[in-house]
Amino acid sequence: MGFYQLKQTQKIPATIDKVWDFISSPANLKKITPEHMGFDITSDLHSSKMYAGMIISYKVSPVLGIKMTWVTEITQVKDKDYFVDEQRIGPYAMWHHEHKIESIEGGVLMTDIVSYQPPMGFIGAMANRLFIKNQLRRIFEFRTLALEKIFGEMQ
Fold this sequence. Notes:
This protein is α+β, with helices and mostly antiparallel strands.
């Protein structure tokens, strides 16, 4: 059974306050997710900001347009520094996603580290090689472009 990591960094020309306000709001997730994923939050959000213990449920179509439920828990939050979401129900055997931001000259460096394990052992490892890894890269490429449209490009 395979265990994989994807690490993505992006420089954003904005203040740490503005970036944090955007990324820590669950309502903004749809804005940075490709439309073909069919991403919709289905839980009733009682807060506009993420907090440790927050449960967020979604409908998403990661493969062949098939809708599935994905439930994540925000397990850790350090204001204006990082938060972690972990899958509780969904397509992966394991999903741990750390979102970290730090001030740099001229803006913010955002780092995403996704640690994941596909389901179904050997078959999942094959699926990762064939399409899961590439699909995750494309999702993060989309997020990069979406955040550039919102905040601008770092020069």
